[in-house]
Design goal:
The protein is mainly alpha-helical. The protein contains 6 helices and no strands. The N and C termini lie far apart (55 Å).
C-alpha cells in the first residue's frame, strides 16, 4: 500500500535537494566579490529551494506523526490508480512553467506573468473570472513597477520595449 502524502513529501525533498546541491551550483554564476549575500544571483533560488525542502519535510513529518498517533492516513487502495483523474492539473504545472520561461523574452515579464497567474489559478480550481483577471493584472503591474522604478532592475519588456 502506497501513501500518496509520503510519496509527495519524499518527491518534494528530492527535488529541493537536487536544486540546492546540483542545479543552482551548476547553473548560477556567483562571483567572489559579492559582499551582500542578498544581492547574490543564487540568493533567491536558494531561498526557494530551502522553502521547498522545509515544505517537504513538514509533509513527511505529518505523515509520520499520523502513523504514530494511529490516525487514519489516506492510503491508496490497490484498485485506485496512483494518478487520479483530477491530478492532471498538477501534471500541467511543469509545462506551464516552461512556457512561462520561454514567453518572458517574447511577451515581456508583465504579460507572461499575468498569463501564468491565470493558468495557475485555473489549475488550482479558481473559477471567479473577476478575481482571475484582477490578480493577473494588478500583481504583475505592481511588481513590474516596483522592480523598474524603485529597485532599478531592468526586466524583459517584450512587446512593451
Amino acid at each position: 500500500m502506497i501513501n500518496r502524502d509520503l510519496l509527495t513529501g519524499i518527491g518534494i525533498i528530492a527535488l529541493s535537494l537536487l536544486g540546492l546541491l546540483v542545479v543552482i551550483p551548476a547553473g548560477v554564476v556567483v562571483s567572489d566579490s559579492d559582499d551582500n549575500i542578498a544581492l547574490s544571483p543564487a540568493f533567491w533560488p536558494n531561498v526557494i529551494m530551502i522553502t521547498m525542502l522545509l515544505a517537504g519535510i513538514s509533509v513527511l513529518l505529518k505523515v509520520l506523526l499520523d502513523k504514530l498517533r494511529r490516525l487514519p492516513a489516506v492510503i491508496r487502495d490497490e484498485d485506485e490508480p496512483l494518478l487520479r483523474t483530477e491530478d492532471w492539473r498538477l501534471v500541467l504545472v511543469i509545462p506551464a512553467l516552461f512556457a512561462y520561461y520561454y514567453l518572458i523574452n517574447e511577451l515581456g515579464i508583465q504579460l507572461s506573468s499575468g498569463l501564468l497567474l491565470v493558468v495557475m489559478m485555473l489549475l488550482g480550481g479558481e473559477r471567479r473570472f473577476w478575481l482571475l483577471l484582477s490578480i493577473a493584472i494588478i500583481l504583475p503591474t505592481f511588481l513590474n513597477y516596483f522592480f523598474i522604478h524603485i529597485a532599478n532592475v531592468n526586466l524583459p519588456l517584450g512587446w512593451f520595449d
